[in-house]
UniProtKB/TrEMBL annotation:
GO molecular function annotations of the record: DNA-binding transcription factor activity; sequence-specific DNA binding
SMART domains for the chain: WRKY
PROSITE patterns reported in the protein's UniProt record: WRKY
Source organism (scientific name): Populus tomentosa (Chinese white poplar)
Domain WRKY intervals: 41-104
TM helices/strands, residue ranges: none
Protein name: WRKY domain-containing protein
DNA sequence: AGCCTTTGACCAGCG
DNA sequence: TCGCTGGTCAAAGGC
């Protein structure tokens, strides 16, 4: 249970809400399409104002979902992101650490960047030793 | 030609 | 002590 004892504080965001918000704020489709052409799994990720590098993907049996691993491209930044999904309509983003730099994407500063701002806000909350509601990793 | 993404393999921790 | 799961690294392929 140590894995769920707060040792790792991840942000749990329902991507459905995220995508909904992003779509409302961005009339243009700015989602990045990440296609797994090998297994046919398709993952659509919204921009969050930061540049991420995907460094791994695995299927987590306990939760029955795929999990993708991302690192912030900024060398000095240790922020990480994990995206879990069982289907394109059921995604969850988890964040670890906070960014040590401002958003590099042009999405920042735009009037319609509320989604990115919310994203940053979560990151700040996370970094302020205020762990968000922890997702319970209970296998079915 | 260079950069980014994807995938398989390896390592560490826990039960 | 062994097996399993999760996380990360490095190489290859595609754009």
């Amino acid at each position: 249970m140590e894995k769920c004892s707060g040792k790792e504080h991840f942000l749990d965001l329902q991507l459905l809400d995220w995508m909904k918000l992003a779509r409302e704020t961005h009339e243009e489709d700015r989602e990045e399409q990440d296609t797994d052409h090998r297994r046919g799994q398709r993952l659509v990720l919204p921009e969050d104002g930061h540049e991420w590098k995907k460094y791994g993907q695995k299927f987590i049996k306990k939760i029955g979902k795929f999990r993708s691993y991302f690192k912030c491209r900024k060398q000095e930044c240790v922020a990480k992101k994990r995206v879990e999904w069982s289907s394109p309509d059921n995604l969850r983003i988890l964040y670890e650490g906070s960014h040590s730099h401002a958003s590099s994407s042009s999405i920042q500063g735009t009037p319609s960047s509320s989604a990115a701002n919310q994203y940053s806000l979560y990151a700040q909350v996370f970094g302020s030793d205020q762990p968000p509601s922890r997702p319970h990793h209970q296998h079915p």
